[in-house]
Here is the input.
Amino acid sequence: MTGIIKGTGACVPRNTLDNRELEKLVETSDKWIQERTGIQRRHIAAKDTAASMAAKAAKEALAQAKLKPEQMDMILVSTMSSEEVMPSMACRVQDEIGAFRAVCLDLNAACSGFIMAYATACAYIEAGLFQNILVIGSECLSNVTDWSDRGTCILFGDGAGAVVVTAAHGRGTIPVLGSDGTKGEALTLKNRKNQTPFSGPLTKEDLSPCYIRMDGQTVFKFAARKVPEAIEEVLLKNKLRKGDIKYYVLHQANKRIVEAVAKRIGEPAYKFPMNIQEYGNTSSASIPILLWEMQKQNMLHPGDNLVLAGFGGGLTWGAVIITWR
Ligand code: COA
Here is the structure.
């Protein structure tokens, strides 16, 4: 038994913020942002939350899979920007969609989260524990963005993507997943400290709001080296050649990172679909949103092999192979 993707769904906020509008917030320019990142605009939540977007994406994926919420055995949500720590976002989605049989839990591997969650879902299915799993990546990054920091606020956007993974006959593929905690400080989102009877007086820094902080160049170099390595390794482990792969669906963090990966593995740009120009970096939502768009554009056909690859905070990375059915 293995897991196959039966349906995709997505939800992005209606409200968009383009580069020209960002020029009013920080010292930047549309030209700089487009040249360095490929981003033209991002969608920013007004009323939506990460949990509400996750539930909407899940409903669409279920409808496409022609499965009912009560048929779901598990809901696995990848997020690092949930509005609440408890209950989990997966439990919020369960309540909203009525998936009353599902085991629900969240997983945080930053921007690699969707890959990790997808691989986890496949492992449960291959172990024979579950049949139908909703895998969701949902982020409300506008909540954790410092809108006065031009080094980060130009990059991120909000959105959610979901897939239904279902048990099917056949052999599973081997994922490549990795982490390097020694480089954790390159990309952080700290939590605020609370006063306790034991903490002593809190400093001004302890009480200040917490935002994403990033050493952009370190992350860029890491991604441009690690993602090609992970792709080569996942192909080797699964005895596939580059000619067997229709598309490489990469985490949408920066157009230049995607181009650098394509160049390094010697594959043509057309095999690397991108939508970063429209959404910016939506962290663990970017891969399922891109898959959803590719499906809507009729780019995916039965038998197509895809490599999905992500990277991000932790630092973490991962690559999986899926065969579209
Ligand atoms: N607008 C205009 N200028 C900016 C700017 C902005 N939004 N942000 C930074 N700059 C300036 C810097 O201050 C610096 O100026 P200086 O030369 O006078 O010091 C100059 O532009 C170059 O900065 P640098 O950080 O070297 O730019 P870069 O080419 O590395 O691009 C990123 C910055 C963030 C776009 C790039 O490093 C990146 O994309 N990194 C990966 C980030 C990522 O993907 N993170 C998420 C991973 S999941």
Remarks:
- The radius of gyration is 19 Å.
- The chain has a mean pLDDT of 97.
- The CA atoms of residues 288 and 304 lie 17 Å apart.
